[in-house]
Amino acid sequence: MDLINGLIIIAVFAGTVIYSVQPLIHPVSESIKEQDDDIASLKIRKRILYRAIKELEMDYEVGKFSDDDYNKSRLELKREISEIIVTLRNTKK
Amino acid sequence: MMPIAGSVALNLAFGFAILSFFVLSFYLRTKSVVYYHVGRRLAISVSVLSIIATVILLNELLISNFDIDYVAHYTSLETPFIYKITAVWAGQAGSLLFWLFILSLYSIVAIVQNAKKLQQMMPWVILVLVFVQLFFLTMTNFITNPFEPTTANFVVANGNGLNPLLQNATMAIHPPMLYLGYIGFTIPFAFAIAALILGDSSSLWIRTIRRWTLVSWLFLSAGVILGGWWAYEELGWGGYWAWDPVENASFMPWLTSTAFIHSIMIQEKKNMLKIWNMILIILTFTLVIFGTFMTRSGIMSSVHAFAESSLGPLFLGFVFLILVGSTALVLYRRSTFKADRRMESFSSRESGFLFNNVIFIVICFTVFWGTIFPVLSEAVRGTKITVGPPFFNQINIPIGLLLLLLTGVGPLLAWRRTSKAGFLKNFTIPILLAVVGGLVIWTFGLKGYVLIAGVLIIFVTAAIIEEFARGISARMRRFEESILIAFTRMVRKNRSRYGGYIVHMGIVFIFVGFTGKAFDLEKEVGLHVGESDHIGKYNFELKNIRDSERPNHFAWISDVRITDRDGKFITNLHPEKRVYFHRHPNPDRRQPHSELDIYSTINQDIYSVFTGVDSEQGIAYLKIMINPLVWWVWFGGWVLVAGTLIALWPRKEA
């Protein structure tokens, strides 16, 4: 029993070593694309802003905003979304 | 064989952690991607090996391998199966390994989850995670190894067994919850440090850490509440919070993380408070490590105990390193993380959140000061000056009530600015109801904090209900939905907002429970069988004293019949006086313990403790307490958990 346990443990430990050094034996070709993070970040920002507009509309409907504040905030959010869309479009090109 | 394997797993993990740290550092210098993959895999291996070590310790506890000192210390042959599992975190060495175990689980999730995302940031995130793991691996390898063999020069036939106070079902859940909460904050901390190093304040990682923080906060909240529950059900003093250092250690990061959960919303929506959020997340993690240091270094019992072990100084050094390193980074990046815009109005939700942040920090500072003052006084003047609950209550009750007020005010405020019309529209009903409610409470003769708390509870409840009602009615008007569908869709489409409101409602319920504390009654008596006494509007009669020998203890059980003043039967209570390790030949090793019995209702708890027994005379010494509204504390806790789960529930991304 002890021998089997011992063999299992050695196999597990050896497995972690092999797993860790594998990229040195079989180098991974994929590179790290820093630009991907920026695009993903912009997409998330866009999603947050769309949600912010929905929340704004809801707050307006329940009477938390004056007409002026509502229009101003909505316009600002839309402007930021437009900028993001343009940036994303340019990145794709 | 297995203990050696456990030690080897820890040794290997330590070696891999060092390797991973250097390989990742090398990648960051050379940008040669192969080193990133090796470093990342090494980090995963560190976690896997740490998990293996924990599983081995658990196995040794379950099979009662008393050759291991830790197993002999915290279990015995009589220890029930479930408490053999809980013994993993019962002692210092095991609890530090358990820290490492949870951190390893979290690290694997964070590394795998972000394998294809946040590619710039992940090498730094992994580096920070490995650094924290390295610290705990140093502890478990060199300072307090849980696989240390016994020092006894004879065959250990049986162990000491687990402390009876820890043999409680709540204690089986409370520490893991607390640990899951505590340690979870390492992930946001790692991201925050990575972001500071890279000067990245983008939405991508903020979103990731917001979820991590919420999950950790959920566990920590559940852990804190369960801790209170355990204290109430097990310690027998009739309360659930005593401001002791261990409780405070979990409460402080809860305060700063709650502040963070609020202020991160401002960063997400308004690109403001970026540096402040960094400070909050760093502070939370520092308090987590500091809390572990406080509870594990022995410093709270005596500064001398701290000096005798190398564990305390190492922990303190680690806290110092985190603080200095993080502060330097924050200062270095302060211009990069400057807010994009300014607060526009005092009557905005932003300023409400900011104000709530200030209150959380003030409470945190008070708790911190009250907790470390005895240690400081002992270190400086040689005499320990104890800071008791009166200090904490005197300062925190008024501040806490202010926080309760903000719990209601915040949701009523609009982002950017609340218009005068909006202010009147949203605040009128809650204020009117609070005033009327206050007058009613006052006519019952209640004054002071109870009156203020009552008024605020009504105000906040009204404010939250109003928020739901207005939202539902807006949907009903706009989409012509029924009330039920409008409610369901509204919550589903705005999970974080309405989940947050439900959490606020949970806080209100908890405050209802706190208010009941002002009306506690207590009586201690010695009764012969057949005798009775009374407390408040209840009579209690000792019907019988029985005894029973169980596998790991001997118990005297008192049967107490509770009736009201008119003789109407209410309940029977059966508190027990137990002696654990009752067969131990050395009487000093036998441990007495009072297992209490509680009759809990929404209005009040009847709390009974069997404090002592005179079997020759047939006398039972009982403590009976009437604790009003305690049920609401636990109910509030469940509501808080439910609200957080709603807020966390993933939404379908478009």
Characterise this structure.
The complex is a heterodimer of chains A (about 90) and B (about 650). With about 90 residues, chain A is mainly α. Chain A has helices spanning about 1-25, 35-60, 65-90. In chain A, helix 2 packs antiparallel against helix 3 (about 65-90). The N and C termini of chain A lie far apart (about 65 Å). Chain B has about 650 residues and is of the alpha+beta class. Helix content of chain B is about 65%, strand content about 10%. Chain B contains 20 helices and ten strands. In chain B, the strands form two sheets. In chain B, strands 2, 3, 4, 5, 6 and 7 form a six-stranded antiparallel β-sheet that branches. In chain B, strand 3 (about 540-550) and strand 4 (about 555-565) form a beta hairpin. The longest helix of chain B has about 35 residues, at about 205-235. The model of chain B has no long low-confidence stretch (mean pLDDT about 90). At the A-B interface, helix 1 and helix 2 of A face helix 1, helix 2, helix 9, helix 16 and helix 17 of B.
What is the topology?
The complex is a heterodimer of chains A (93) and B (654).
Chain A: H1 2-25, H2 34-61, H3 67-92
Helix pairs in contact in A: 2-3
Chain B: H1 2-30, H2 33-62, H3 69-74, H4 81-86, H5 92-113, H6 122-143, H7 169-184, H8 186-198, H9 203-235, H10 245-270, H11 274-296, H12 303-308, H13 311-332, H14 349-381, H15 389-412, H16 420-443, H17 448-479, H18 483-493, H19 495-516, E1 521-528, E2 532-535, E3 538-550, E4 553-564, E5 569-573, E6 576-580, E7 591-595, E8 597-600, E9 604-614, E10 619-628, H20 630-648
Antiparallel strand pairs in B: 1-10, 2-3, 3-4, 4-5, 4-6, 6-7, 8-9, 9-10
Helix pairs in contact in B: 1-2, 1-6, 2-5, 2-6, 5-6, 5-7, 6-8, 7-9, 8-9, 8-11, 9-10, 9-20, 10-11, 10-14, 11-13, 14-15, 15-17, 15-19, 16-17, 17-18, 17-19, 18-19, 19-20
Q: Can you describe this structure in just a few lines?
A:
The complex is a heterodimer of chains A (93) and B (654). With 93 residues, chain A is mostly helical.
